[in-house]
Amino acid sequence: MVQEGDGELNVDWKSRLLMLPAFAVFVLFFIAPFIYFFVISFWRVRTYKLSPDFSFVNYAKALERYVPIYQLTFATAFAVALTCVVLGLLYAGVVRFKAGRYATLLTFVPLMTLFGGYLVKIYAWKTILGLNGILNGAMVGLGLTDEPLTAFFYSPFAVGITLIYFLLPFAILPIYASMRGIQDIELDAARDLGAGAWHRFSDIIVPRCRAGIVSAFVICFLLAVGDYVTPILVGGKISMIGNMITPQFGQKFDWPLGSAMSFVTLAISIGFVVLFSMMMQLWRPR
Amino acid sequence: MTSPADLILRYLVGILVLFLIGPILLVMLFSFSSNPLSTFPLGEISLVWWKEMLAHPRFYDSLGNSLIIAVCVGISSAVIGTMAAMSLARMKRRSANTLISILCLPMMMPPLVLAVSLLSYYNAIDLPLNLFTVIISHLLFTMPFVVLVTYARMASFDFTAVESARDLGATPLVAFMTVTLPMIRPTVIGASLIAMALSIDDFIITFFTIGQGNTLPTMIWGMIRTQLTPSVNAIGTVLILISLCSSVIALRLTKYRA
Question: What is the pTM of this model?
Answer without folding.
Answer: 0.88
